[in-house]
């Protein structure tokens, strides 16, 4: 296990009806911008609850943040922030709204070309507006971390950025707000959390039994809850545990002190930017093939995964590894997320490889061994 620091200042406010607690966590004199995506926060009544809880504060709204938040749309929100002298941002939605709000928080106070935030992966961020979150979708873990991903439509570029200035001050997690999600959103959330965990777990041994067991416990919980979350959409306990798993999957804890991969995510980002495939769908496409192509490099952890997560103990090592990968693919399919490029109408991989090369994604993975040639093999296997 490597040396590491773990820092996370986000306060989690968890449970039914906790939106009323907004009044405790936002300064009374704040000028608040409430940010959200489509109309679901209105039709479900969540927005009404939020506005009521904000009381007599000065409140503005910004709607229309996309499922893959675009730089172009977010810069419109930056204009609102500056014009209305906003000093507190409240994201109401899932990971895309939260990611977009993080970008807005930094860009609103940025001195220079805001594209630089993305080009430098956030390293040039010196200050940001304070952020609060009301979570409505369990998936990305953005409610308790300091990163985000934004798409620049004009260049089909999907870029990640990070800064300690971007941790939400608080996040309200009310599992009942997920009851009205579509099956597609729920399935995507399960897959997203699953792959977040595996990208921090399926690497190579690092003498980190605490992190390994923690990751395995989260994966087992997702496997147990995945189909239940779809078949019993108003089961509070199921949705509460799913929400907490997704948060814990990417708040930095299970990845502290251990090697991490993220090659599946990087390839997935290119698929989203080019073809507008849902983020989780791209992960479901890429991960099984990535594990297959990199079986040798990941052998020890894949065997551990097979035994501890999928309870596969019969057969030789190669048989168990192949079975574990097959079970992972089947699990994604069981929650309604297809796992082949052809399922999404993608018939060529050359454009994806060209984007990977253009964005210098040519040495990915825990040991930087995922070259363009390896990515080609992965995408060929994903057809």
Characterization of the model:
The protein is of the alpha/beta class. It folds into 2 domains: 11-177, Rossmann fold, CATH 3.40.50.1970; 181-381, Up-down Bundle (Dehydroquinate synthase-like, alpha domain), CATH 1.20.1090.10. It contains 15 helices and 8 strands. It has helices at residues 22-25, 40-43, 46-54, 71-84, 95-107, 115-119, 183-201, 209-231, 236-249, 263-275, 279-293, 299-308, 317-334, 350-358, 372-381, and strands at residues 11-14, 31-35, 58-62, 88-93, 131-135, 147-152, 157-162, 170-173. The strands form 2 sheets. The chain has a 6-stranded parallel sheet, sandwiched between helices. Helix 7 packs parallel to helix 9 (236-249). The longest helix is centred in the middle third of the chain and has 23 residues, at 209-231. The radius of gyration is 20 Å and the shape is globular. The model has no long low-confidence stretch (mean pLDDT 97).
What is this entry, summarized?
By secondary structure, the protein is of the alpha/beta class.
Count of separate structural domains: 2
CATH superfamily of the largest domain: Dehydroquinate synthase-like - alpha domain
The helix tally amounts to 15
- State the CATH topology of the largest domain: Dehydroquinate synthase-like, alpha domain
Distance between the termini: 37 Å
Query: Over the alpha carbons, how many angstroms does the gyration radius reach?
Result: 20 Å
Task: Bin the helical content.
Answer: 40-55%
DSSP strand (E) fraction? 5-15%
Strand order of the largest sheet: 1-8-5-4-2-3
CATH architecture assignment name of the largest domain: Up-down Bundle
User: SSE order in H/E notation?
Assistant: EHEHHEHEHHEEEEHHHHHHHHH
Q: Structural class, from secondary structure content?
A: alpha/beta
Mean pLDDT, all residues: 97
| CATH C-level label of the largest domain | Mainly Alpha
Q: Segments where pLDDT lies below 50 for 5+ residues?
A: none
